[in-house]
Amino acid sequence: MTNQKETQEKKPVLRVRDLHVSFASEAGVVRAVRGVNFDLYRGKTLGIVGESGSGKSVTSMAIMGLLDKNASVKGSVRYRGEELLDKDDLAMSKIRGKGIAMVFQDPLSALTPVFSIGDQIKEALTIHNPGMSAEQIHDRSIELMNLVGIPEPEKRLTAFPHQFSGGMRQRVMIAMAIANDPDVIIADEPTTALDVTIQAQILEVLKKAQRETGAAVIFITHDLGVIAGMADDIIVMYAGRPVEYADVDSIFAHPAMPYTMGLLGAVPRSDRGSDKRLVPIPGSPVNLADLPQGCPFAPRCPMATDACRHEEPELKPISGLEGQLAACLRADEIASKGLTFHDVYQVDDRTPSKFAHIPRSQRRKVLELKDVCKTFPVTSGGFFRRNVGKVHAVDGVSFDVCEGETVALVGESGSGKSTTLTQVMNFTEPESGSITVLGTTLSKKHMSREKRRELRAQVQYVFQDPMSSLDPRLPIYDVLAEPLKAQHKSREEIRQRIGELMRLVELNPDQVDRFPTQFSGGQRQRIAIARALAVNPKLVLLDEPVSALDVSIQAGVINLLEDLQNKLGVAYLFVAHNLSVVRHISSRIAVMYLGRLVEVGDTDDVFDHPLHPYTKALMSAVPVPDPQRERSRQRVVLQGELPSATETFAGCPFVGRCPLMPTLTKEQQARCMGERPSMRVSNEASRGDGHTVACHFA
Amino acid sequence: MSSALEYDETVECEAQKGPEREDLGSDDAPAANDSFKRTGRLTLYVRRFMRRKSAVVGLVMLVVLIFFAIFGSKLSKWSYDEPDFTALGSGPTADHWFGTTVGGSDLYAMVVRGLGRSLSIGLLSSIGTTVIAAIVGTAVAYFGGWFEKVGMWVLDMLLVVPSFLLIALIVSSATGGSDWLWLVFGLTAFGWIGYARTLRTLTLSLREREYVHAAKYMGVSSFHIIVRHLVPNLGSVLIINTVLGVIGAVNSETALSFLGLGIKAPDTSLGTLLNAGQTVVMTSPWILLFPSIVLIVLTFSVQLIGDGLRDAIDPYSRSAGKAE
Hints:
The complex is a heterodimer of chains A (698) and B (324). Chain A is α/β, with parallel strands linked by helices and 698 residues long. Chain A is built from 26 helices and 24 strands. In chain A, a hairpin with a 7-residue loop joins β13 (365-379) and β14 (387-402). In chain A, α5 (117-126) packs parallel to α8, α18 runs parallel beside α20 (521-533) and α20 (521-533) packs parallel to α21. The termini of chain A are far apart. Chain B is mostly helical and 324 residues long. Chain B has a single domain (77-305), classed as MetI-like fold. Chain B has helices at residues 2-31, 41-51, 53-75, 107-143, 145-159, 163-173, 179-206, 210-217, 222-233, 235-258, 270-279, 286-313. Chain B is globular. The interface between A and B is medium-sized, with 39 and 31 residues. Chain A: Belongs to the ABC transporter superfamily.
């Protein structure tokens, strides 16, 4: 038995050779995957990284045989020596789920809403084991649910997908994937739709599932931090081709392909201060229907030579680096000279801030929130729609934003970050508490039109998705003119200003008569930022402004935001769930949990010395793009999920998940449950400027 | 009539202005450092419209029809209200190009006159209907709250009004030559209600779009949000409504005329002519044939223009031309 297992270990369970996938489209043939090769061994994890459109998901779909009919797949995929690409759908369905299983990105759409969880796990089991008895199925289901950490599995078997949270659904997906002890698990961005604390849990579950089944895992992601902690080997893909292949330590320690370097340089890191600027990769990803001649990365590559533009380099070993392959003509040169991304990419210096030498306490406050509350009524589903309760979306939030600084609001989804922003933007008195914008307190009393308009000009907003926040039917000129027209500027002023704005956000002013659809995602977000800055506001509220963008594009937008702040002295109130971005861009940070603030302080202070147990858990859950650090890190993995928003808490809302709770005495625990903690300066020696925390015992 | 003409003339004018303005822009460019090339939104739409051959064909057809309706009567010596009693129900001849009706009226003159009437009725009432429906429908949805509730009550109440009967009463009480104007009024006043309800439903999802919120946060007034964001984003639906509305209005007018309540003799319309032609289709088919051809050309041209307009204002269409 052991002998047999050993021979298995040496033979790859999945062998992919020269895989090509192309699709027919209106714009021509899209060559989504162009020559992928790899061997996959049991117990190993292969990470595939790349930006959107690099062909990573298409590769996995081709292996599973799940591509549309309009796709042409060439090459060879051998699973235990069997060729998969020759099999028809019926033959493939014998292997799917049993030999190769898949975990999808969106657990909401991957589960059928009309069947209970138990039925869906049962289906996964019986389809490959028709002879299983009802009792066996039940026992196996319970076993699986215990394995993936779903509490009270007996009760949850009869529950339906909508009764599960996102993280729990993803656990169910993993349970179904490992139900038949597959040899290969393909996880396609399994944690992208989840919060960072839940992401940490799911990654743990995936690792556990791999240990239990001994399966090989193909882990597809765009997040370099996640891959650093998960993978053994990494393939970096660009424009449908693997451009670099190596084990995880080599890739992160000495990347040899300029694209990999760019990717690593473009991600902000949560474990370091923001002394350095990010390195954006110039240009935008290639059009797969119209690939340039030569290396597809050449148009964006700072090291490209004429030779790069003529022939496409093969993926081949780099001299001097054992086991590392790169598709780059200059890889040997890079490896021998030991070039890093600082040598390859130009990093321009940061513009000095207008307010650099003025201490925070002497700056003017542009926004001040005091005990702001916002509740939403919960209505019963019946005919009369009675109010049956309240959701405390924002519950007693107080903080302020000064001139020229960036304050970040962070927290899991559902913690009330965006609601807080809308409270400010609505320009009405909050349900309780007060909002002061540039010295004007918003009140129920009728504000004169004139006054209101002036105030509007001082506060602007940038949305998460630039596609939906720009009217698709307006040319860019009219998009940018809108805030100016609302401020009654003259035609000549508007024209002048739009020219300035386009240059400010580094776009060509001659493109003003194009429609938003004709721009790429990063360019659109630049337009949205230009629109927000059109009227010279003092404060810009940004709701996840970079989360819809690819890493290389994101870096450019973050740099732009920083430069604009330093040049114009505008203050940002920044909402983001990506804590690495927050660490990079913000000077102060406010952590929210279930509508309440739990910790406020200077960014470096909060990241390096978090006080509140929730903040600690949040910070430790952020994956860092550094495999050695990832392995040695101690994680505070939070138990459970965000409680339902309709619950009301007499004391601290975090008690149910707090890792501090079991260490406290009975009396102390009673205090946590009964008494609401208020914001105070910590018991520990006060660090830095106004670092406050809402915890009795932190 | 005049309004319908104006509508087309503005389109024509813009088309001519287009390249001119562009030239001005590029002349400016080297002069001042800060200026840049910009094409106005209307120019942009006109250019996109003109890129579509079929739309231009439709526009030319409509212009020809309008000229025919205005100046066609000058070409013939016969007038629509002067029957030629020497040629009752005669086929097309050198004297009567399209033949005559059973009553001896010259069919060419009748078609010219009828086309004018139908064009004005069709275009005026369908454009009027669409404009009212678009503004009321989007406003009801946009403002929400009690405004929406009251608005919906009013709409529902108006829906149960027996519109056909009321239009008939209004038109029959009208005197003199203005009965067709009353007909347009009646068709418009009762035609928009159903559309408004449909448009409200469509707006319900539009009003939650981020660009609408963005405009609100920028301090753009409600009226401007409706006109600049909501109505244009309903563009495709509105244009289809207008195109179908032209055909619908001609139909309603025919139905009313059949009951003797629409256009009254000696005045005529395409609907009345078709109606008259139907009864004698076996003996004098030309009476049905010529008005039908004209009506088909009319609806076809409106259809082509509608398609062109829809694509011109739709940024996702291929009217953007070839990418550089």
